[in-house]
Amino acid sequence: MTALRSGSGRAFIGPEVLVTRMPILRFEAADTTERTQIGEGLVRFAVKAGRLETGREEGRYFLQHADGCGVDGERIRPGDPFAFDTDTGEILCVGHAAERAASQRPTAN
C-alpha cells in the first residue's frame, strides 16, 4: 500500500484510497493588475477561493488577483502570465507555480 501512481490529476495510494488533486491553472496573460476575465468553467473555483468578481461592464466573471503571488506578494502585471492553484486558492507567478507543480508530483516508492 505504499506505491503511488499518478495519472490525469489523480493519485492512487493502494487499492482502496483515491486522492484527487485539482490542477494549477496557467493563464497566458493577466488583463489588469487587479483581475482577469474567466469563463463559467472556472467560476466555482474562484468562488471557493473567494476570488470571484462580477458585475463589470467588461465582462461577466473575473478572477481577482490584486494581492499578487501567494508566495512572495509580487504583483501580477497586465500581460504577465500567472497561475491559479485551484486547491489552495492562491495566485502564483509562473516561477512559483512551476515549483509547486514539481513538488506535488507523486513519486513511486
Automatic annotation (TrEMBL):
<dbReference type="InterPro" id="IPR058388">
    <property type="entry name" value="DUF8075"/>
</dbReference>
<feature type="domain" description="DUF8075">
    <location>
        <begin position="22"/>
        <end position="102"/>
    </location>
</feature>
<protein>
    <recommendedName>
        <fullName>DUF8075 domain-containing protein</fullName>
    </recommendedName>
</protein>
<dbReference type="Pfam" id="PF26276">
    <property type="entry name" value="DUF8075"/>
</dbReference>
